[in-house]
Amino acid sequence: MSNEPVVIVGGGLAGLCAARELSIHGVDVLVLESGERVGGRVQTDIVNGVHMDHGFQLYNTGYSEGQRVLDYQALDLQPFSSGVISTTPRGRIKLGDPRELVGWLPGSIASGSLPSKAAFIKYALSQSRKSGEEITRSVDGNAHAVLASAGITGKFYSEVIQPFFAGVFLESELETSSRFMNMVLKTFVQGKPSLPSAGMRAIPDQLANALPAGSVRFNSAVTSISPTSVRVGAEVINARAVILATDSTSAAELGGVRAPRWNSVTTWYHLAPMGTLDEGKPVIVVNGGAAGPITNSVVLTNAVPGYAHDAQLISTSAVGIHERELNLKEYLSTMHDTDASQWELVGHYPIARALPAMTPPHSFSPPVEQDGVYVAGDFQASSSIQGAMVSGRRAASAVLSNVFGQLEDWDSDV
């Protein structure tokens, strides 16, 4: 039997999960990462003790693949509250789970129409009870139309649901696949949006650290691939199989994979003096019709105080690409009900390739093999950490079956 490894192009979550699955089954792997660290789009910069993720990212404990492969205790996941604050022309409205945010009950009742809120609760619970397979086989449409047909309309939609999902999908019209939205709702009901205490980069770092020593090579940009080899500069590396686990644009350039368009986002980080913004609760503040480009803003240190020392760290995001010096202070003052004029801007992340668009009809499991090369990435499943991880395992399982004759029991994870 050949001693050549399975070569995995890309050290993001999909590539790392593919490497993990193959290594567990005794297969030698070599992950080639073009940069200096693993994680792909899941990164955290630490500058003067301030933790800044690349864009506002959260990990949901309801992700079934994450439950399977990650050590939650080691990540020290810090949960967000089950609530949201919407900034509207009528002021700030607080909505939350009354079991957790008792004082917010009056606002939860007063905001929007009761029928629309009841319709949303009913719809979300109905999706949470479905299996992943049921959701992926359901009739697909755009999220906006499906929500409207379910009776989720009016101010509750425009001031809460639309801005909230705009921040999840990174597009404001909610033209995203309703199948994907339903999967998001399922995880929100079953899990908790959270942050690792050391930043989002702790997730890929944990996956990489579990691989055999020497499995990952950095600064190794692959320039061409075939089913049995890859080229890094002048070096040709032979392989038992090749898994292409880059982002969709690079996969299209290297392997002719059809790439969806990208949704983009810009995130700013500000430091504010110590205090109790948003009552000290880790909740997302959405722009529910107030002026300005902001989609959402959140006091990260309300969830993870260690994200900044002796200060409050606020992450603010807007769909699209925006300049660093965009004047946000007035909008932030309104959204957080404070004077933000003296907040210090410490980070600016314009991310053109933030999420691959999930337009209907969306397939969660397109063919894994293309022209003899195996393909992984969130665009092969869903625009989420769950999608990236499960796509890596799916590609690894195909290699185990087709190349090594090892059959795995595969469930309907998406």
Question: What are its keywords?
Answer:
single chain; about 425 residues; FAD/NAD(P)-binding domain; Polyamine Oxidase, Chain A, domain 2; 2 domains; 6-stranded mixed β-sheet; globular
Strands, helices and their partners?
Layout: E1 6-9, H1 13-24, E2 29-32, E3 44-47, E4 50-53, E5 59-60, H2 64-69, H3 72-75, E6 77-79, E7 83-88, E8 91-96, H4 105-110, H5 114-128, H6 132-136, H7 143-149, H8 154-169, H9 178-190, E9 193-196, H10 202-209, E10 216-217, E11 224-226, E12 229-232, E13 235-238, E14 241-244, H11 248-255, E15 262-272, E16 284-287, E17 296-299, E18 312-319, H12 329-336, E19 344-356, E20 369-370, E21 373-375, H13 385-402
Strand segment tally:
21
Proper CATH architecture of the largest domain? Alpha-Beta Complex
Which class best fits the helix and strand makeup? alpha+beta
The oligomerization state is single chain
Q: What is the number of domains? A: 2
What does this structure look like?
This protein is of the alpha+beta class. It folds into two domains: 141 residues, FAD/NAD(P)-binding domain (3-Layer(bba) Sandwich), CATH 3.50.50; 241 residues, Polyamine Oxidase, Chain A, domain 2. The chain contains 13 helices and 21 strands. The protein has a seven-stranded mixed sheet, sandwiched between helices. Strands 10-2-1-14-21-20 form a six-stranded mixed sheet, sandwiched between helices. The protein has a three-stranded antiparallel sheet with strand order 5-9-6. The radius of gyration is 22 Å and the shape is globular. The chain starts with 5 loop residues before the first strand and ends in a 12-residue tail after the last helix.
